[in-house]
Structures are given as C-alpha cells and as structure tokens.
Write a structure and sequence with these properties.
- The complex is a heterodimer.
- Chain A has 13 helices and 14 strands.
- By secondary structure, chain A is an alpha/beta fold.
- A seven-stranded mixed beta sheet of chain A has the order 3-2-4-5-7-6-12, with helices on both faces. A five-stranded mixed beta sheet of chain A has the order 9-11-10-13-14, with helices on both faces. In chain A, strands 1-8 form a two-stranded antiparallel ribbon.
- The longest helix of chain A is centred in the middle third of the chain and has 22 residues.
- Chain B has six helices and six strands; from the N terminus they run βαβββαββαααα.
- Chain B has a six-stranded mixed beta sheet with strand order 2-3-1-4-5-6, with helices on both faces.
- In chain B, strand 4, helix 2 and strand 5 form a beta-alpha-beta unit.
- The longest helix of chain B is centred in the C-terminal third of the chain and has 16 residues.
- Classes of the chains: A alpha/beta, B alpha/beta.
Chain lengths: 352, 179
C-alpha cells in the first residue's frame, strides 16, 4: 500500500473524509489550522460540507444539528477554542449525539501560546462542561495512529451515541510522518433510527433533546448514560506497553510525550536499567488494566506530561497506593528532552 | 542506522522544504522518517528550523536534542544549534552568510558557498538544494536519484520548469564534497 508523507493535521483531515465524515464546522486557530484548510479544499470536491463558522460556539452547535440529522460530523480546534465548545459538548452528551471533536492542544491557561501542551487533560477526561457526562478520549502518538484512531473515533461515536474527543498536541499536528490509509472493513453499527430526518411513516416524531424538567426522568436518563459509560469502560480501554517484559520501573506518558519518554526508556535500557513504558491510547476510559498487568513486578512509576500534573491523578487512582508514583512535567509549551526524562528515571530508581 | 538532522536558517530560504525532501526520499528508500517544523508567529525573514529523523527502526522520539548533522544556512542558526551537535557530528555551513567558524574541534565542519553557487546557477533560491547535495554527498544517507524523484514530487505542476535548476544545484552540492 502506498505510503505518503503527511502532516498530522492534514492526515487527520484526510482520514475523516475516508471515514465518511460528511460535515465539518470549525473556526481557525494555530496549531490546527491545516486541518480545516485541508477540509475546506477537499470536502466540497468529495461530497461533503465545509463551513467556517462565525465562532467556536456556533461551530459546536452546528455539529449538534448535523449529528441530530444522523450524519458523520466533526469539528476541530485548539485549547482556547475547545474551552468555548464546552457547553455544546455537554449538550451533545445529554442528547446522545455521535460526533468527533479534535483538540490539538497548545499552552494555556487563557490564550497561552501556540506551542505544544497537554494541559487540557482534566478538561478532556473530566468534562469541561456541566453535568454527569463522559466523552471517550483518544490520544494518538504518531501520524499513522492519528489516522487509524480517526476511523475508530467515528465508529465509537456511532456505536455508543456519544461524542469522541481526539486529543493531540501542536507537535503531532505539525509533524510529518509516513502514513498508509488502509482500507478497513465496515463495522456493524446500530442503525440511526433516532435521527431527526422526517417521520417516514412512523406515528411519533424523533426528538433530540437534553432537557428533562422532571427530576425523576432526568435521573433515569442519567442512569442510562451511566450504564453506557460503564460498558465503554469495560470494553474500550486501550494501551500499549513497550520494553515491559522484565521491567521493574515504568514511565507513563501519552501522545507526543510518550515518544520522547520512549527514547528516554531506550537510553536507560542501554545502561541496564529495567524500565518500561505504559502508553495509554484511551485517556477515558483510562486503561487501569495496564497497571494491574505490571503491578506485581513494578517498584515505582513515573508519569511524564506536558503539564504540571494532570494524568498523574489517574495513575494514582490506578496504582491505589501499591507503589510510589512520581511526576515530571514541562508546561507552557516547553517540551522535555529525552535526557531530562532519563535523569528522572534514574532519580525514581534511587528514591524507591 | 539512525540519523538525526537539524536544518536551520531564515524564513524564505526553503529550510522546511529541504527537510521535507530529505524525509520524503528516505521514506521512498524504505526508511522510517519523521519531520518536525519549528512553528511560531514568525514568517519570511524570521528564523526557521526543522528536525528530520531517519532510521531503520520505529522512531521513538521525533524531537532531537543532539543532532548528528546540522545544516546552518545563516549565522544565528549556527550559533544556536552548533553547541547541540553530537561529538563527531557534521556541521554544514552556508559560507555566504556565515563569516565565522564554530569554536569546536570535535565536529567536522563543511563550509560551502550555497548561496553563491545557487546565484551562479541563476537562482539564489536553490541554495537549499546545494546544501542538501552536500549533506547527501557527505553522508550517503539517500541516493541522489531518489532526492531528484522527491524534488519532482514536491514541485507543483506550474513549477516543473524549476526541476532542472534544482537538480543542477543538488549535483553541485554533491560535487563540493566529492571533489
């Protein structure tokens, strides 16, 4: 199959079209603007709709409309723009609408800067909007995985009638790597018989709504959502373990940070330090199973993030005090070198 | 085999494209590759750099902290990146815009008048291909004919008339280190 050299943002856009995305609504922001630019050029040629909205808030509500009509729809932005979309994401979850939301993270808080960051982890995994809801969060760490996870994102969204977030960062969006757009067998997905596409002879119209004034009804609705979230937690958590076979120490990192951590792990291996890497691919559901797998032999864990410590809370919730958990992070768009992480690995070994 | 390369210069010198062409050729030769641009608010006239990693194996980190090879197309780039170059590494300098030599004796420094040669060929903008020629001539990391294929891949249809001069520039660069 033909390999092409593509930027993360453009590869993601191409994968969305191939995954059957029919509508894109967005508003430009660095470092993800190549994504809407690609779709602006390609969508009209390939039977889709591209619309640059007047704001991020408008874009996410257009997503609500298109998803309600049963088509595959996507929006993308970077950190400050994703904050603006939070109200819409809460509504999409309440109304159980499938869609894909891409966040190519940059430094924050506020307008921050345009360099890579992972400081929206809490917002993505805890929900930056209001209410008892969850979104599936996928964290690719290469351009190829970005492409593969876009197909999965649309399938998961349709399967569970839920928004799926793709959490990337500035480097992943900007970098080029070879990718192959593999043909994938279509998955068996539930019919969208809930979509508001006309009554088609049915007696009752379909209604898309997140308002339940009767608390008895809302509790019922939320419990139904909760059951769905439990099913997702049981079935969809994903991770990769590298250099794990004889490892006694583990580094945990996701996205681009996992790539740098992997280089640090290889440096440590060259010096005979038995260290492995746990790379969560889903951030929600969090792959707790990875920790159960390694805990019998693990002496300590080191979480590395492009933030001052967000995912480390999930690591602690997974380890449950059974081994020490250390943290190292850079923030504000700064990126650690592999050497820096290697020093932290050596420190972890000394401390435990 | 693994080679980490940083290319740097002014915006407008074709730094990004030089890296893309190198990464693309290595991909055509069946290698694993990655390319990362510096990206910021700066545009033409500002500084630009890109990082290229070429390997036989899965590339752990695409981010380079100590390159095997540095291509510096202007003085600020030489000053910024030379200290990072691995001991025993190679630094390729565009002599036309750099009037100093780096103060290190553990690296191989290759000075080439990339801008001058490009100008002589008729277009200063192909200085990047002269430098790329020096890089592949010195390291043998990819074959010249693969690079020519990649140049063709990146040149848009309305710029195919630039093929010949780019090819000449690449070959002049190779000749600089193989003379």
């Amino acid at each position: 199959m033909e390999k092409v050299l593509m930027k993360g943002n453009e590869a993601l856009a191409e994968a969305a079209i191939r995954a059957g995305c029919k509508c894109f609504f967005g508003y430009p922001i660095t470092p993800q603007s190549e994504l809407p630019a690609y779709l602006a050029r390609e969508m009209p040629k390939r039977g889709g709709v591209f619309l640059q909205a007047e704001s991020e808030v408008a874009a996410i509500n257009m997503v609500y409309g298109a998803a309600g009509a049963g088509v595959r729809v996507m929006t993308s932005s970077s950190s400050p723009g994703i904050s603006l979309k939070q109200e819409g994401i809460s509504y999409l979850c309440g109304a159980e609408l499938p869609c894909v939301i891409v966040n190519i993270m940059r430094g924050g808080p506020g307008l921050g800067d345009i360099q890579p960051a992972q400081s929206d982890y809490f917002q993505a995994t805890r929900g930056g909007g209001h209410g008892d809801y969850r979104t599936i969060v996928l964290a690719p760490s290469s351009v190829q995985e970005l492409v593969d996870l876009v197909y999965d994102a649309f399938d998961l969204a349709d399967m569970y009638r839920n928004p799926v977030l793709i959490l990337g960062d500035g480097i992943l969006g900007q970098m080029m790597e070879p990718v192959v757009f593999k043909e994938r067998p279509a998955r068996q997905l539930p019919p969208k018989d809930w979509a508001t596409t006309g009554k088609m002879g049915r007696q009752k119209p379909n209604v898309i709504n997140s308002l339940y004034l009767d608390p008895v009804k809302l509790e019922e609705h939320n419990l139904k959502l909760f059951k769905k979230y439990q099913e997702i937690e049981a079935k969809e958590a994903r991770y990769e373990i590298l250099n794990g076979d004889d490892a006694e120490y583990f580094v945990i990192a996701y996205g681009i940070c996992a790539r740098i951590a992997h280089a640090a792990v290889e440096m440590a291996r060259e010096e005979g330090i038995k260290v492995g890497l746990i790379r969560p691919i889903t951030l929600w559901p969090y792959p707790k199973k990875a920790f159960e797998e390694v805990l019998p032999k693990a002496k300590a864990f080191l979480t590395v993030e492009l933030s001052l410590g967000q995912m480390v809370e999930d690591v602690k919730l997974s380890v449950e005090g059974r081994a020490p958990v250390y943290f190292y992070g850079r923030t504000g768009g700064m990126v650690p070198t592999a050497e820096e992480i290697f020093e932290e690995i050596k420190k972890m070994r000394g401390l435990s | 085999m693994k080679m980490e390369i940083i290319m740097a210069g002014f915006g407008g010198q074709g730094i990004m494209l030089m890296g893309e062409i190198l990464a693309h050729s290595a991909m055509l030769e069946g290698r694993e590759v990655s390319w990362i641009p510096s990206y910021g608010p700066e545009m033409r006239g500002g500084t630009a750099n890109c990082m290229v990693v070429i390997s036989d194996k899965r590339i752990p980190s695409p981010i380079i902290s100590s390159p095997d090879v540095l291509v510096a197309m202007n003085k600020p780039s030489m000053e910024k990146f030379t200290p990072m170059v691995k001991s025993g590494g190679i630094v390729i300098l565009n002599k036309a815009l750099i009037d100093e030599r780096p103060a290190r004796d553990d690296i191989k420094v290759i000075e080439v008048d990339a801008t001058g040669i490009a100008d002589e060929l008729g277009n200063m903008r192909v200085a990047n291909m002269v430098a790329l020629g020096v890089l592949i001539g010195e390291t043998g990391i990819v074959k010249p004919e693969t690079v020519i294929k990649s140049i063709d891949y990146f040149l848009p249809a309305h710029r195919k008339n630039m093929m010949e001069i780019n090819e000449k520039a690449l070959k002049r660069g190779i000749a600089e280190v193989q003379k």
